[in-house]
């Protein structure tokens, strides 16, 4: 009797693949990696949002300084940051726009706060952070120009 050549390949095909134990070990390793890397990754996202807010506040501060050089004063609280994009009616020496794009929201989707005169300088420019409330710690801390 001759050996059937199709039979050994059929046996190999049945035994090819992963066992349940091997799959469970891989899933445990993936779970451990996700548990270790995930929190570190998401903490970096909060730090980057704070850095973006600080960079935008610095850019607004420079634009406000340029506005003051042209107009002779900072915009009032009522005029707000929008006066960097469109001339207020009572400012004949306005030479803007002072920003390339419209005034964005902060990284948490809320408007930046602007006060003139400020409590900490000629003007106060700040974001309330991720919680949208004054104060806070960590990612919820306020980001300001002072």
From TrEMBL:
Subcellular location: Cell inner membrane
Membrane topology according to the record: Single-pass membrane protein
SUPFAM superfamilies: Pili subunits
All copies of domain Type II secretion system protein GspG C-terminal, residue ranges: 41-146
Primary residence: membrane
Alphabetically ordered keywords of this record: Cell inner membrane, Cell membrane, Membrane, Methylation, Transmembrane, Transmembrane helix
The keyword Transmembrane helix appears for this protein: yes
Residue spans crossing the bilayer: 20-38
InterPro entries: Bac_GSPG_pilin (IPR000983), N_methyl_site (IPR012902), Pilin-like (IPR045584), T2SS_protein-GspG_C (IPR013545), Type2_sec_GspG (IPR010054)
One Pfam family matching this protein: T2SSG
Family, similarity comment: Belongs to the GSP G family.
PANTHER family: GENERAL SECRETION PATHWAY PROTEIN G, TYPE II SECRETION SYSTEM CORE PROTEIN G
Protein name, as recorded: Type II secretion system core protein G
Species this chain originates from: Thauera sinica
Organism lineage string: Bacteria, Pseudomonadati, Pseudomonadota, Betaproteobacteria, Rhodocyclales
Gene: gspG
């Amino acid at each position: 009797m001759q050996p059937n050549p199709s039979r050994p390949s059929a046996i190999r095909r049945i035994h090819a693949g992963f066992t349940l134990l091997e799959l469970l070990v891989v899933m445990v390793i993936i779970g451990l990696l996700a548990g270790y890397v995930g929190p570190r990754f998401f903490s970096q996202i909060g730090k980057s949002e704070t850095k973006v807010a600080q960079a935008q506040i610095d850019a607004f501060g420079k634009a406000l300084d340029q506005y003051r050089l042209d107009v002779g004063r900072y915009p009032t609280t009522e005029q707000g940051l929008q006066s960097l994009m469109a001339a207020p009616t009572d400012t004949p020496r306005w030479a803007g726009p002072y920003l390339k794009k419209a005034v964005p929201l902060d990284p948490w989707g809320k408007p930046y706060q602007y006060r003139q005169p400020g409590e900490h300088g000629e003007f106060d420019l700040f974001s309330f952070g991720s919680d949208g409330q004054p104060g806070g710690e960590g990612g919820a801390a306020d980001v300001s120009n002072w």
